[in-house]
Amino acid sequence: MASVDTIDRNILRLLRVDARMSNAKLAAEVGLSPSACMRRIKIMEEAGVIRSYTALVDTSNVEATIAVIINITLERQTEEHLDRFEAAVRRYPEIRECFLMTGGSDYLLRVEVANAGEFERIHKEILSTLPGVLRIHSSFSIRNVLATKPKRR
Q1: Which CA distances in Å does 86 have to 103, 124, 133?
Q2: pLDDT at 145
Q3: Does residue 66 form part of some domain?
Q4: DSSP 3-state assignment of 135?
Q5: Residues 75-121: pLDDT tens digits?
Q6: Which residues pair with 70 in a beta bridge?
Q7: Which of 9, 25, 59, 93 is least enclosed, having the fewest CB within 10 Å?
Q8: Are 40 and 76 part of one and the same domain?
Q9: Sign of torsion, CA 75 111 99 69?
Q10: Who's near 24: CB < 8 A, 6+ residues apart?
Q11: Taking 60 as the threshold, does the pLDDT of residue 152 lie above it?
Q12: Which residues have a Cβ under 8 Å from the Cβ of 115 and sit 6 or more positions away?
């Protein structure tokens, strides 16, 4: 896919707000026919612009979880070290998010656990075995103050 135009950006903005919006409604919102809108979505999916669809779950209503924010500092910041670390992180579903960062640490990870014992297992079996890790700094959340989807304009 060469570039994302204004219509594609509008489609993406609306899908971020409501990925379950019907194609007919989405098409009407962006000024396309339903078939043209679906064609654009398929092109963006195939090009990897749209990687997946997900649901925001309020875990307080489903299960007791604690979010743990983990700052990782690597021994070296070469492309090879970054690539090895990122490939390893992708293998563990326990790691919900991973961000390459600027500042004091190289990566910020988010995991969700039921209790400290579960985090101890993740720390021992996963985090401490990731390649090139020099330092691990973990913080447990007290509660989630804001988890939201982007507001519709």
Answers
A1: 18, 18, 12
A2: 79
A3: yes
A4: strand
A5: 999 999 999 999 999 999 899 999 999 999 999 999 999 899 999 99
A6: 109, 138
A7: 93
A8: no
A9: negative
A10: 34
A11: no
A12: 66
Question: How far is the C-alpha of 95 from the C-alpha of 75, rounded, in Å?
Answer: 20
The first and second tokens of residue 14, run together, are 């609306």
Residues 87, 21 share a domain: no
Cβ partners under 8 Å of residue 96, min gap 6: 110, 111, 112
In a domain, 103, yes or no: yes
- Per DSSP, 7 falls in state H
Expressed as residue numbers, the domain containing 22 is 6-46
State the pLDDT at residue 52. 87
Total number of domains constituting the chain: 2
Domain of 66: which CATH number?
3.30.70.920
Nearest 5°: phi and psi at 93?
-65, -20
Q: CATH code at 24?
A: 1.10.10.10
Terminal alpha carbon distance of the chain? 26
Contacts of 58 (CB under 8 A, 6+ apart): 147
Q: What are the residues facing 111 on neighbouring strands?
A: 68, 95
Vertex 125 angle, CA 119 and 128, to 5°? 90
